[in-house]
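The passage that follows is intended for readers who have already worked through the single-chain material. We present the inputs for a multi-component assembly, then the predicted structure in tokenized form, and finally a short commentary. You are encouraged to pause after the input and sketch how you expect the pieces to fit together before reading on.
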Amino acid sequence: TQLLEQSPQFLSIQEGENLTVYCNSSSVFSSLQWYRQEPGEGPVLLVTVVTGGEVKKLKRLTFQFGDARKDSSLHITAAQPGDTGLYLCAVVNAGNNRKLIWGLGTSLAVNP
Amino acid sequence: DVKVTQSSRYLVKRTGEKVFLECVQDMDHENMFWYRQDPGLGLRLIYFSYDVKMKEKGDIPEGYSVSREKKERFSLILESASTNQTSMYLCASSWGLRDRTTPMGNQPQHFGDGTRLSIL
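Having made your guess, compare it with the prediction:
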């Protein structure tokens, strides 16, 4: 069974701090997606990582796919209140590639 | 931009009622999905559809059915609502086989803003 573990579950920080959240599994994945869900809205795709060791940057967000393609991290530099939300990782279901398997998410609160 | 529209943001129904949740997407996507999202349980797939009139059960289909008569519309039906179906319901869509430039597993899902359903 493919399982995705996200940590930490909750994170509350002050504006300007740096943070890293993680998405881990014992399975190997061909790709991994990161989404952000703001309060009262649906999740929105941030990035897809495909290659082991790949690093992608999206302004102050840095995404890394582990060399073995079993894990990924999201680092936010100088967090802002607008970064507040639920960060979800997702991978394709090996049994049916139309479906995604989702982690439970990291709930981030950035306080002004 | 892809637009996925859910018919209601908030809905209150009574136990035993038949409830319809509607979702429309404007990008001609092949795949459409219904999830429910509950604290501590994350996103759980109820049903999905990969073509008109085609559907597959997700992880928690019990108590639900779906209908996809037109490509752009995917409806979720609670046959006889119960209190344990109180939840946030999210609809999503994605490209399928028509997008030959992106592997299926890399295709993003585009979500609506959700319907918060309360069953009293």
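Commentary: The mean pLDDT of chain A is 92. The CA atoms of residues 32 and 91 of chain A lie 5 Å apart. How closely did your sketch match?
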